[in-house]
Amino acid sequence: MGNIVLVLGGARSGKSGFAQSLISDQERHCLRTSVFYVATAGIEDDEMARRVARHRADRPDRWKTLEAQNDVVGTLEEIPSKSIVLLDCVTMMVTNLMFSRRTEWDGLSMEDERSVEQFVLGEVDRMLEVFRRRDISAVLVSNEVGQGLVPPYPLGRIFRDIAGWANQRIAKEADSVYLITAGIPQIIKEATS
């Protein structure tokens, strides 16, 4: 079964760089040879284009980049078994999934909110199942969004809640979990042999 590692941190905490170093170590020390970078961010403006360019420049050219803004699970199903995957990032995947279900968030009923939550978390469960079933070694990058201020608008609060629940599900299933603070990794769940 594939190994799953979750790398959590705040904005510019160093989580993507740390995740890339984990993948490079795996690439050097195991028989898995294909590395796939699964990108969940779309380029909507100049700022995002600069961020994406920076991420591309930071990773080796030999890694295959797969754009998965609209269908992460479908993209993962196409990756060969026994590959290595770096998925960056879960919180962007959550955002994309939320907006695939609806675009109006003010005045959302409890039933509609619950429907979006169940859809997103169902996709997270499907993603984790693909990693295990296809024996894919995965490092997942995600933002820790629950340690800041409470967002003052409904969409922000709903996003924060769903992203937090997604992180919890992934952390429970993960073999290892790291929290990155100011570039310093702390292991908060260690793989057992």
From TrEMBL:
Keyword GTP-binding: yes
Pathway(s): Cofactor biosynthesis; adenosylcobalamin biosynthesis; adenosylcobalamin from cob(II)yrinate a,c-diamide: step 5/7; Cofactor biosynthesis; adenosylcobalamin biosynthesis; adenosylcobalamin from cob(II)yrinate a,c-diamide: step 6/7
EC numbers: 2.7.1.156, 2.7.7.62
Family that this chain belongs to: Belongs to the CobU/CobP family.
Enzyme category, top tier: transferase
Keyword line: ATP-binding, Cobalamin biosynthesis, GTP-binding, Kinase, Nucleotide-binding, Nucleotidyltransferase, Transferase
InterPro entries: CobU/CobP, P-loop_NTPase
Protein's job: Catalyzes ATP-dependent phosphorylation of adenosylcobinamide and addition of GMP to adenosylcobinamide phosphate.
Name of protein: Adenosylcobinamide kinase
Catalytic reactions of this protein: adenosylcob(III)inamide + ATP = adenosylcob(III)inamide phosphate + ADP + H(+); adenosylcob(III)inamide phosphate + GTP + H(+) = adenosylcob(III)inamide-GDP + diphosphate; adenosylcob(III)inamide + GTP = adenosylcob(III)inamide phosphate + GDP + H(+)
Pfam families, sorted: CobU (PF02283)
Single GO MF descriptor: cobinamide phosphate guanylyltransferase activity
Keyword Ion transport included in the entry's annotation: no
